[in-house]
Amino acid sequence: MHGADYRPPAWLRNRHLQSILAGSPLRRMRGAYGLKRLGATSSGHMVDGGDGVRLHGLHTTLPGMRPRGLALLLHGWEGSTESSYMRMTAVQLLRRGFDVFRLNFRDHGGTHHLNEALFHSNRIDEVVHAACDIARRFQPPGTPMVAAGHSLGGNFVLRLALRAPAAGLELARVASVCPVLDPARTMLQMEQGTPMYMRYFEKKWRESLQRKRRLFPEQHDFDDATLKLHMRELTEWLVQRHTDFGSLDNYFDGYSIAGDRLAPLAVPTDILMADDDPVIPIGDFHQLVLPPHARLEIAHWGGHCGFIENARLDGFAERWVAQRLATEAAPVAS
């Protein structure tokens, strides 16, 4: 499978339709059905994010199967372990012999109560620490660990791969779908593009902040006027009140992986992007500097994390991720 192989039927070649269908309730239901049909069992676990941080995730296995590896999956901003692409990617990886661990970022998937401080996109240290804890506890002996992420999760998984060697985390391969490369340019594209994407993320983030305020009223005493700010202004408020970055530009630069920032990657890496993504600027990908063992594939269609193939809402990206990561799977026991 290659990005260029993705050729949806004509009625699925609209980037907005692709992006909307990507997170549809029907896709989430299909993912749940796929897990049930396989007989998969999932259990919730708290994992250690370091410095007292607690994160939550789901460990999914097939009873009676001897695992060929462990796959860590990271969701996008305001997604969760139960997002459609997380469930459907898990199905594909389970079919290829992997155990799967789906990790919730801080303040995602109903985990707002676990930590007082707010989530922001530079909290990579706790994800690296959690990945190390997950490897220690859930990686089957003698098998590889791989990882994948979508959108902001795609950004996180690439930063995880950059930091893995220094953290002592042995990642065999990572795959990233429509990752955020340059946050400043992504913000600008959302501001200048179709308003529904900005409205969607603003609504989801406001709901998340409201929930955090209810849980920790003394720590988070911001007023309703703050919640009514638009995305750029609300992000700047977050940076000034809840980070040490000092400015929005510094904050965006903190998690940018644009230009040559992925050049030091030591982990084999695959990146899938759609030329018509309405959220992430495609131009950033043409400027990427990658090492020889990292490969970028750009499909002509797909929208933002869509890559829907048919009326059943099957996903090319989920199969692509599983195929790429499965190249590192341990041999089937004889």
Describe this structure in words.
The longest helix has 21 residues, at 195-215. The model has no long low-confidence stretch (mean pLDDT 97). The protein has an 8-stranded mixed β-sheet with strand order 1-2-4-3-5-6-7-8, sandwiched between helices. It is built from 12 helices and 8 strands. Helix 4 packs across helix 5. It is α/β, with parallel strands linked by helices. 40% of the residues lie in helices and 16% in strands. Strand 1 and strand 2 form a beta hairpin. It has helices at 15-22, 25-38, 84-95, 124-138, 152-167, 183-192, 195-215, 224-227, 231-242, 248-254, 283-286, 316-326, and strands at residues 41-48, 54-61, 69-74, 98-103, 145-150, 171-177, 269-274, 294-299.
Question: Can you give me a brief rundown of this structure?
Answer:
With 334 residues, this protein is an alpha/beta fold.
Question: Which helices and strands occur, and which strands form pairs?
Answer:
Elements: H1 15-22, H2 25-38, E1 41-48, E2 54-61, E3 69-74, H3 84-95, E4 98-103, H4 124-138, E5 145-150, H5 152-167, E6 171-177, H6 183-192, H7 195-215, H8 224-227, H9 231-242, H10 248-254, E7 269-274, H11 283-286, E8 294-299, H12 316-326
Parallel strand pairs: 3-4, 3-5, 5-6, 6-7, 7-8
Antiparallel strand pairs: 1-2, 2-4
Short key terms for the protein model shown above:
334 residues, alpha/beta, 8-stranded mixed β-sheet
Q: Major sheet: order of its strands?
A: 1-2-4-3-5-6-7-8
**DSSP helix count?**
12
What general outline do the C-alpha atoms trace?
A: globular
Measured distance between first and last alpha carbons? 27 Å
- Gyration radius, in Å: 19 Å
Low-confidence regions: none
The counted number of beta strands is 8
| Secondary-structure class | alpha/beta
Strand-and-helix sequence, N→C?
A: HHEEEHEHEHEHHHHHEHEH
What number is the mean pLDDT?
97
| Biggest sheet overview | 8 strands, mixed
- The proportion of strand residues reads 15-25%
